[in-house]
Amino acid sequence: MPTLPEAFADLEPFADWILPSEYDRYEKRVSSTQDELQAFYDAAFPRLQESTDYLKSVSMDGISEEDQNLLWLFCSLVTVSFPVEVWRQPRVPESGASTFDVYVEPRP
Amino acid sequence: MAHFPKPAEGSWTEHFGLATADSSYEDSINPEYYDAEREAIFKRTWLNVGRVEQLPRKGTYFTKELDAAYTSVIVVKGMDDTVRAFHNICRHRGNKLVWQDFPGEETAGACRQFTCKYHGWRYDLEGALTFVQQRDEFFDLDMSEYGLVPVRCEVWEGFIFVNFDPDAPALDEYLGKYGEGLKGYPFGEMTQVHKYRAEIGANWKLFIDAFMEFYHAPVLHAKQAVDEESRKLQEHGFEALHYGVDGPHAVITSWGGMAPPKDERMVKPIERVLRSGLFGPWDTPDVPGLADEDLPPAINESGHRAWGVDSFLFFPNFMILTWRPGWVLTYHYWPTSYNTHVFEGACYFVPPKNAFERLSQELAVVTFKEYALQDGNTLEATQRMIQSRAVENFPLCDQEVIIRHLHTTVKNYVDDHRDGASETPVRVSAAS
Questions:
Q1: Which of B93-107, B161-175, B264-278 has the highest mean pLDDT?
Q2: ipTM of this model?
Q3: Are A100 and B372 a contacting pair at CB < 8 A?
Q4: Longest CA span, chain A
Q5: Between chains, do A71 and B359 touch, taking CB under 8 Å as contact?
Q6: CA distance A46 to chain B (A)
Q7: Total structural domains in chain B?
């Protein structure tokens, strides 16, 4: 199981959101229930809010594995923020079965 | 009520000499018309197929499927560091030369030479035929006559273009005022790239139509914003700051008050924390060329202080969006039939220095994705119904002026080609 920096150990129960590709983060969102998205958001959003200084101190050059995991977890938070903050449903309204898939993305 | 001034003629549409009568979409629902577009447009205009950063070293290459021009091309950096393009076809029996597993899919990589999977013929990076399996079995085979077939290939500001017409003007000339006026923008600093792709069940022009007007934005995308802001946006509607036309190309300059917003309650909680959203990260990266006073003249050409984004359409199917906070979005629309196309959207940022900046960029990228999902799905709904021909003429407002310009430009190309001659372009000779 991937690990997070020690100060973020409280987010370990959500380690299944540590996903390096936006493709997988989006797939997990649309296959989750609204309650599951809300639970993850409620745990992770306050931690993002109070960690912006820390994140600014984490250089992308030579980023550690733990910080990279934290970055992927917060990327997943970004992905789930829309349904939680606005739509109250996992997919954006009026998008039906349409797809728009990533094929080139930075790692990290 | 107009919030922003219009030209002396009273409307942008009349200013550009375009008709104000209802428009037909017959050009988007007729398979024969699409065939005419392939000949008149996609085999004759400059098509952007990628950027130079995709070819970092000698021998790096990528392929591009160009259904609309009936071909696939290989784009490769040669031993002399020159970028060249070739039709992706082996001169022996016509097999596709470069592909992986699936003949219809694009690929990329690095090599010293290209080897055909079928009978092992080999070509160097400059296109010359260098090896023929059992050469003695052939009849007077002069290998210098069987190089890869070159395609015209030119580079503008790091963007690689191809053109199948030997008589077409040079790329710089073709791109005109906006090509010249964007020179010097720091595209080359924006090497952090996220690319997305979708198969869209609509004619290629319909998606350009959607992205060359923002009249739809406060309505179709209403649910993307917080409630109060959404109501305000719908009350105001949309007005561009400026429209520009140069030959077949066009630009819309639009308002950008959300990066950063005047009042943070206008945006979602995640946007407040990460200082980012649809308009991109709010803080301009520290690279030369992005300060307002350093921007090249095509950016915000009307000099409006509320400037937020320019949407340039380089005819036929390439759009560049330059956002005030200092990032770039590109769109490509690759037709695959009269009522389908592949849409590509790519976000280009200055590489993030820290994890916070990386997250700000991620928020901009996935916000764009959510908007594009709504746009793409709506286009299928449009295509289905215009194909019914139950209604054949549609009114377009002044904020949809570039739609008129695009469809008129397409019609001019198709008519000129029909009138001029029916011959296909002169075949270029083999590489020497």
A1: B161-175
A2: 0.98
A3: yes
A4: 41
A5: yes
A6: 10
A7: 2
